[in-house]
Amino acid sequence: MSIQSVRGMPDVLPSESAKWGYLEHQVRQLFASYGLVQIRTPIVEQTGLFARSIGDVTDIVEKEMYSFADRSGESLTLRPELTAGVVRAAIEHGLLHNQTQRLWYQGPAFRYERPQKGRYRQFHQIGVECFGIADAMMDAELIEITEQLWRRLGIREALTLQLNSIGSPEARSAYRDALVSFLEQHRESLDADSQARIDRNPMRVLDSKDPNTQQILVDAPSILDALTDEDRAHFDRVCTALTEAGVPYVINDRLVRGLDYYGRTVFEWTTTQLGAQGTVCGGGRYDGLVAHLGGKATPGVGFAIGVERLVLLLETLDAFPADLERGCEVYLMLQSPEAEPALRRLASQIREAAPELRVMTHIGEGSLKSQLKRADKSGALVGLILGEDELRTGQVQVKPLRGGETQTVDYADAVAYCQRLRKAQWII
Ligand code: HAM
Fold first, then answer.
1. Contact status, residue 142 vs residue 268, Cβ threshold 8 Å
2. Residue from 262, 273, 311, 282 nearest 161 by CA
3. Among candidates 27, 253, 216, which has minimal Cα distance to 208?
4. Less crowded by CB within 10 Å, the N or C end of the chain?
5. Site to substitute for ligand 1 among 59, 123, 146, 264, most atoms within 8 A of C-beta
């Protein structure tokens, strides 16, 4: 019996990886244009980091973490998200002392959820975390970055921005009382998880996916009525900045997000195109988290995008560029084994003169006809053919594979021809 991949942990095969490369390229370019710098943190952290930051009474910590004891008995966890590790690293390396940070990251995360379309046990996030900036303009700029990304990818119309403020700890404590007394009145009708959470973490009840609980929550009090004046001013500033930037939003006062570290702004980008797993991106402000994890009090705000869901959405909307399938731009063929050294030299010259092009040489036997077939299948824009005649004259046939006349030219002209080819913009 052959060994299979772990359930919910899919491979990204060559046919898919060009799509990932395209997304990553767009993201890198966009994030750089906002001055973000990348941070890379380990996939494994101490279990306590997640329990303390995401919250003990959350689905992630209660049900979804891959935790294990290592050989020395220490409890470690495959990260279920990247924010906690980034905050840990920022504190540990003194990145937050009298300075601001605008960081981005990408990488796998792990949650033991029931796999289905758009929901996996290993998935990938691309995210941003900004530290040291309390101003609501930062919240608005982060949302603007995500909106710009959707625009560049051509999927803006398919996404809706859901926005809420869950206020400061004072506002939440007042709200909690109102919410608990509401939930108590309906205790018997709530799902079992929600009943258990009334006492331990009542705002998590708002996350419940249970349709009956959701129905009851329609009449629950609104967090927006509990905001302090400062919370309200912060939220208004985010809303105004978004309106000024032309980014429409829907205020959803039931949106609390599934992690406990948030305060004030929270947001999600959702789509109706992916069925049940329609949240493509989520984020918000977490001004208390750095101090909670042992650092000096430092405001923070960020978001993370689910890469698999984004890939699915682009596929559904047919929004990937048509030339993504192309495997190379130039394909070199030979009609006689003697041409091999010249063919390799010519390929090297092209790679040196046009480093952004992908240049493949035919290797092994094969009639010219079969080589041309391969060249066509590779998606190449041009084929270069070296035969005995060309060897003698020091020339090469340049055969455009997507329409155009074949010409026989000197090597230098063939190199110049290749330099003029349109390279695929998304190659990294
Ligand atoms: P999150 O909402 O838990 O937030 O995850 C962010 C995104 O990751 C989701 O919107 C979704 O697209 C994707 N995602 C989550 N779970 C899965 C899964 N099982 N399979 C596929 N995709 C998934 C966070 O993780 C926060 N750290 C975001 C953040 C950063 N907040 C502030 N900074």
1. no
2. 282
3. 216
4. N
5. 123
- Bridge partners of 409? 396
Q: Is 281 in the pocket of ligand 1 (CB under 6 A)?
A: yes
Q: Give φ, ψ of 38 to 5 degrees.
A: -85, 145
Strand-pair partners of 77: 45, 67
Q: How many CB atoms lie within 10 A of CB 326?
A: 16
| 227 Cβ inside 6 Å of ligand 1 | no
Tell whether ligand 1 has an atom less than 6 A from the beta carbon of residue 125.
yes
Concatenated DSSP letters for 23-88? HHHHHHHHHHHTT-EE----SEEEHHHHHHHH-SSSHIIIII-EEEE-TTS-EEEE-S-SHHHHHH
Residue 183 to residue 200: CA distance in whole angstroms = 13
Long-range CB pairs of 387-391 (<8 Å, 24+ gap) are 387/334, 387/335, 387/336, 387/339, 388/335, 388/336, 388/338, 388/339, 390/339, 391/336, 391/338, 391/339, 391/342
pLDDT per residue of the chain (428 residues) written in tens, 0 to 9: 899 999 999 999 998 999 999 999 999 999 999 999 999 999 999 999 999 999 999 999 999 999 999 999 999 999 999 999 999 999 999 999 999 999 999 999 999 999 999 999 999 999 999 999 999 999 999 999 999 999 999 999 999 999 999 999 999 999 999 999 999 999 999 999 999 999 999 999 998 989 999 999 999 999 999 999 999 999 999 999 999 999 999 999 999 999 999 999 999 999 999 999 999 999 999 999 999 999 999 999 999 999 999 999 999 999 999 888 889 999 999 999 999 999 999 999 999 999 999 999 999 889 999 999 999 999 999 999 999 999 999 999 999 999 999 999 999 999 999 999 977 666 54
Q: Vertex 240, ends 236 and 244: CA angle to 5°?
A: 175
Residue nearest to atom 11 of ligand 1 (CA): 306
Decide if 386 contacts 342 (C-beta within 8 A). yes
CB 64 within 8 A of CB 111: yes
First to last CA, the chain: 38
Q: What is the separation of C-alpha 4 from the centre of its chain, rounded to a whole number of angstroms?
A: 26
**Strands 330-334 and 279-285, bridge-based pairing:** unpaired
Q: Rg of the Cα trace of the chain?
A: 27
* Residue 255, φ and ψ in degrees, nearest 5: -80, 110
